[in-house]
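Dear V.,

Thank you for sending over the compound details. I've combined the ligand you provided, adenosine-5'-triphosphate, with the protein sequence from our construct and run the structure prediction for the complex. I'm sharing the raw inputs here so there's no ambiguity about protonation or stereochemistry in the SMILES, which I know was a concern on your side last time.
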Amino acid sequence: MTLETPTLTDIALDARHITRRYGAVVALADASLTLRRGEVMGLVGDNGAGKSTLLKVLSGAVVPDSGEISVDGEPVSFRRPADALQAGIETVYQDLALVDTMSAVQNVFLGRENLSTNPFLRALNVVNDRAMRSRAREVLAELQVGIQSVKEPVKGMSGGQRQCLAIARALLWGRRIVILDEPTAALGVRESKQVLDLIGRLRDHGVSVILVSHNMQQLVTVADRITVMRLGRSVATRDVADVTPEGIVGLITGAVPADVPTPEDTAAVVE
Ligand SMILES: Nc1ncnc2c1ncn2[C@@H]1O[C@H](COP(=O)(O)OP(=O)(O)OP(=O)(O)O)[C@@H](O)[C@H]1O
Ligand SMILES: [Mg+2]
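Below is the predicted structure of the protein with adenosine-5'-triphosphate bound, written out as C-alpha cells.
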C-alpha cells in the first residue's frame, strides 16, 4: 500500500489565519481553508459565521486585516477583484450581474468581448459576434446548460438557467477556481439539481469549487469535503464520506465538538 501525501501542487488555493474586522464586529477571527485541485469544498456555518466575508476575501472584494493566501503554492495579495480574476478565481455572486436585455452570448462575454480578427475592425473595437456565439454555444453544450437560444435576451430565462449561465461564464474564461455563494438559495428543487449537476461537471473539467450552502442534503451530494465556520473561525474540516447531514449541523451549532474550540465553547466549559 502506498501512502499518498498531498504535494504542494495538489493544493489549488490555501488561505491561512485570515482575520477581518468591521469596527467592533469580528467577521473573521482566524479562518483557514484549503482547496484541493478539482474538488468541491462546501463551506457551512450559521448566519453571520463569516462565510460570505471569507469568500469576499478570496475574490478580492474585501481586503483582510491579516492572514496569507496562496494560489498554486504561490503567495498572492488581492487588493481588488481584478487581482483574484487574474489569479484564475471567478466568483458567482447571488445577484449574478447578468444584463437582462442582453443575450446569453453577450452575457458570457460581458466586458471581455472577442475582438474581431480583422485588424482594421479590431482597431474600431468591433466585436466578433459569430466567433463569440460559436464559442459560447460550445461551452454551454459542453456543460449541458439547456438554453434554447443563445441569442435571445436572458430576461425570459429561469433562475436555474441564469445561475448556470453565470457559472458557464467562469469555465469559458478558463478559471481554475470557482466560488459560489448560496447558488441554489432562490431555486426550486429541479433548478437546484440543474445547478448542482453543473457544479459536478465543473469538477470533471478539473475546476476547484468553493460552495456556500445552508442545504446539508445538497452539500453531501455534491461536495468532497466540508469546512465548518463558527463565529469567524474555521473550526472543522471533514471528508463528506465521514459525516452525515446531522453531524454537520452538530458541528455548526456546537453540539458536536469541533477541532478548534470557539470562545463560546470555552465559556461553556468555564461555567
Ligand atoms: N460590510 C460589513 N459591515 C459591517 N459588518 C459586516 C459587513 N459584512 C459582514 N459583516 C458582519 O460580519 C459577520 C459575518 O458576516 P457574513 O456575511 O460573512 O456571514 P455569513 O456566514 O455569510 O452569514 P449568512 O449565512 O447569513 O450569509 C456578521 O456579523 C456581519 O454582520
Ligand atoms: Mg453569507
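A first observation: The radius of gyration is 20 Å.

Warm regards,
I. M.
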